[in-house]
Amino acid sequence: MKIYETHAHLDFPQFDQDRDILIRKCIEKGIAPINNIGVNKETNRASIQLAEKYDEIYATVGYHPHDADKLDIQEIKQLAAHQKVVAIGEIGLDYYRNLTPPKVQKKAFIEQLKIAKELEKPVVIHDRDAHQDILEILEEFLPEKVVFHCFSGNVIFLEKILEKGWFASFTGTITYKNPQLADVIRMIPTDRFFVETDSPYLSPQPNRGKRNSPLNLQYIIQKIAEIKFLAPKKIAAMSYQNAVDFFLSKKA
To answer: Exposed, middle or buried by CB within 10 Å (0-12, 13-18, 19+), for 23?
Structure first.
């Protein structure tokens, strides 16, 4: 069973002791490609370094809303031109923690959307308690390819992003008690979703509270399969092809 891990942070310190061992284990188990996601200057560069080291790893570059005040536009443009960079992200708005002022978050989000449109790169969205503002900004700039990482909206919000042709990606949170997300999974078409772990965060049941890794993707796939009454292999294959078409189609 091949699985595309669309969102992980394998460059983070939680993997310093066993990073290469873990990556090799993932590849051996068919978990590849892996998108390593940038969130600031250091992780953007670290993601590219990992992508240069492993054929199976791709990178994204962007400034997370928590680091919006540090945005370096020229750096993003330069790094995004790298052949292994497949998207701009994760970018967006986070009104839950509000580590930077909303006005600063919005400005950084808009500037990065402009870069994505100019370079014709997909966009990986971080959206926490900011559904309406993110939707309004995206509707103004209308990037061609958008995925809402760790989708947390309801079916009404899902309908709005589906109308635009955008995608939702699901993490281990779907294995927690969450009727809203179960309804979202029932509703989402099989050609409009990805799976991800957001490693090292959001470990699915039964590993909740422990460090997450791409090896836990099986639990996310099993849960989606259970809700949709489909075989796990079928869910994995659908998600894999969706992600290849979204992130790698121009590289084929």
So the answer is: buried
Task: Compute the distance between CA of residue 99 and CA of residue 178 in angstroms, rounded to an integer.
Answer: 26
Q: HSE on the CB side for 179, CA within 13 Å?
A: 0
Average pLDDT of every residue of the chain = 96
Please say if the pLDDT value at position 191 is more than 90: yes
Number of domains in the chain: 1
pLDDT digits (tens, 9 = 90+) for 16-25: 999 999 999 9
Contact present, 89 and 126 (Cβ < 8 Å): yes
Any idea what the CATH number is for the domain that residue 148 is in? 3.20.20.140
Q: pLDDT tens digits, residue range 230-244?
A: 999 999 999 999 999
Give residue 52's domain range.
Answer: 3-251
Q: Annotate 13-72 with three-state secondary structure.
A: HHHCCCHHHHHHHHHHCCEEEEEEECCCHHHHHHHHHHHHHCCCEEEEECCCHHHHHHCC
Question: What confidence tens digit (pLDDT) does each residue in 42-78 have?
Answer: 999 999 999 999 999 999 999 999 999 999 999 999 9
The pTM (predicted TM-score) of the whole model is 0.97
Query: How do strand 146-148 and strand 123-128 relate by DSSP bridges?
Result: parallel
Per the DSSP assignment, residues forming a β-bridge with 193 are 168
- Please give the Cα distance from 248 to 60 (Å, whole number): 12
